[in-house]
Design a protein that fits this description.
globular; two-stranded antiparallel sheet; 207 residues
Length: 207
């Protein structure tokens, strides 16, 4: 009996960790990824996979259909040294994984360790990573990073209106995988583990 209770509790904990900090966590879940090889075998071009099969959640699927194939907006952001620049001033011509995150998001904190590992491993593939805290205080984000020890590129953007206008609803965390032309190849909503993220990178970039 104790073993059964333990398994139930463990299942609940795993479910909570893998749930993103969305506007309404009861209405949206992670992208459903089947076995990586199975997904990879279905990849085509324009779009590179079957969106209807890949995204089982209706809200995420609708979001994917709107965003995949679109060019990422040239938003303005402030880095941790208080320098202000446009997105394409730094990332033009580069593969970029963009994360919309928030310091208030437990899921964002939970994935920092795996995200840092993936980011370092993918330097050899010339993939850049940037996390964007939307409409948050710069000093608050600095304190957050110091506390959590993440060493990747994190910036603050006050272009909340532009972001909401371009993407309608952005759940936290949301990842956009951009090609060298700034075109969105893939999206992911919610948390992940390293193996899942490696699968996402393969699907987006064939790497």
């Amino acid at each position: 009996m104790k073993k059964i209770v333990y398994i139930i509790i463990l299942s609940i904990v795993v479910l909570v960790v893998l749930t993103g900090c969305t506007k309404d966590t009861s209405q949206i879940s992670n992208n459903s990824l089947t076995d990586g090889n199975e997904v990879a075998s279905e990849l085509k071009s324009e779009p590179p996979f079957d969106i209807d099969k890949f995204y089982t959640d209706k809200k995420v699927r609708s979001m994917a259909k709107k965003l995949i194939g679109e060019k990422f907006v040239d938003l303005q952001y402030t880095d941790m040294e208080a320098n202000v620049q446009g997105f394409y001033d730094k990332y033009k011509g580069k593969r970029v994984v963009v994360e919309f995150m928030g310091t208030y998001c437990d899921a964002c904190v939970a994935i920092f360790s795996d995200l840092d590992i993936v980011r370092r491993e993918r330097e050899k593939d010339s993939i850049e990573f940037i996390s964007i805290a939307v409409e948050q205080d710069l000093n608050e984000v600095k304190s957050f990073l110091k506390l959590n020890g993440y060493t990747g590129e994190v910036v603050v953007s006050k272009d909340g209106e532009l972001i909401r206008g371009a993407y309608k609803s952005i759940y936290i965390p949301t990842f956009l995988f951009l090609d060298e032309n700034g075109v969105i190849q893939l999206i992911h909503v919610g948390s992940f583990d390293k193996q899942m993220f490696d699968n996402l990178i393969y699907i987006a970039y064939r790497l």
